[in-house]
């Protein structure tokens, strides 16, 4: 685990850090509780905080409250509290402040390792539940909700020096595939497209039905168009099998690049306009819609 240790004593920090590192954990130690809180807030890879009650400027209970506010259903965080004077703070007060467990300070190495193993089991279960909640069951790509969260984050981080392009992909004549070959074959086609999208290494998700989207941070339109052309060609050049009979299919793709002032809705709307143009233009092609709402075909 990635652990933040908070204690005013340099000797305690050194001793406990040694225990944690020897158990295979990554440790960042602080004497200042406010600095520790800022670090945890800025680094989502931190999964555990081990803090003394005797810390400043935020005391141990204040730190617990603040840490618990950072943790939510998207970010599990274990908070372990230790003190050499437990009798001064009733256990229920410590737990009500947001702590998950309490240890006497300094903790024995064996007890500390055991408590952390227990915390790790809970964290792994929480992380698995988060992944399950974010995953489309048919394709194992991100589901719509998770993709929209990623899109909002990508738009917030977009800038002229770091472009962002969104791609929307729709399977052509999908209803016809289901009607002719059955929903099992339709599901095979959806999974096949998902695998092609996964191999791009971008942020891929299923919007619903036969429609997908890619978020491409760091890609301008030119680079994204190359990826889109490859996706379109791969889909057109392969087939899924129905009782050894090949079922061929194509996709249409719409692209839109982030411009200053764009929100997620605006960016996705332009990609949707481009996708509609690709469909209207004959399908099995890629279209781009600019910020000026000018649409053109690129393949």
TrEMBL record:
Residues 162-291 form the GGDEF domain. This is diguanylate cyclase. NCBIfam families: GGDEF. It holds the Pfam family Response_reg. Residues 2-120 form the Response regulatory domain. InterPro entries: CheY-like_superfamily, Diguanylate_Cyclase, GGDEF_dom, Nucleotide_cyclase, Rev_trsase/Diguanyl_cyclase, Sig_transdc_resp-reg_receiver. Coiled coil: none annotated. It catalyses: 2 GTP = 3',3'-c-di-GMP + 2 diphosphate. PANTHER family: DIGUANYLATE CYCLASE DGCM-RELATED, REGULATORY COMPONENTS OF SENSORY TRANSDUCTION SYSTEM. Its EC number is 2.7.7.65. It is an enzyme of class 2 (transferase).
């Amino acid at each position: 685990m990635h652990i933040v240790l908070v204690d005013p004593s340099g000797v305690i920090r050194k001793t406990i850090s040694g225990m944690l590192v020897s158990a295979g954990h990554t440790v960042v130690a602080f004497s200042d509780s406010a600095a520790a809180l800022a670090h945890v807030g800025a680094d989502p890879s931190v999964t555990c905080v081990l803090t003394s009650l005797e810390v400043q400027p935020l005391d141990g209970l204040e730190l617990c409250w603040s840490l618990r506010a950072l943790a939510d259903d998207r970010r599990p965080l274990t908070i372990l509290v230790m003190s050499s004077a437990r009798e001064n703070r009733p256990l229920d007060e410590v737990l009500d402040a947001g702590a998950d467990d309490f240890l006497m300070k300094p903790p024995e190495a064996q007890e500390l390792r055991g408590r952390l193993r227990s915390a790790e089991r809970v964290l792994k279960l929480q992380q698995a539940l988060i992944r399950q909640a974010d995953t489309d069951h048919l394709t194992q790509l991100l589901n719509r909700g998770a993709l929209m969260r990623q899109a909002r984050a990508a738009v917030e981080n977009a800038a002229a020096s770091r472009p962002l392009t969104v791609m929307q992909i729709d399977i052509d004549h999908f209803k016809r595939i289901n009607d002719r070959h059955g929903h099992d074959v339709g599901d095979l086609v959806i999974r096949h497209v998902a695998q092609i999208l996964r191999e791009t290494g971008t942020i891929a998700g299923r919007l619903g039905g036969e429609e997908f989207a890619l978020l491409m941070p760091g890609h301008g339109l030119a680079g994204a168009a190359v990826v889109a052309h490859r996706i379109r060609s791969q889909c057109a050049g392969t087939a899924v099998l129905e009782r050894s009979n090949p079922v061929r299919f194509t996709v249409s793709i719409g692209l839109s690049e982030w411009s200053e002032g764009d929100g997620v809705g605006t960016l996705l709307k332009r990609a949707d306009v481009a996708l509609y143009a690709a469909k209207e233009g004959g399908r099995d092609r890629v279209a781009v819609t600019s910020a000026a709402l000018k649409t053109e075909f690129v393949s």
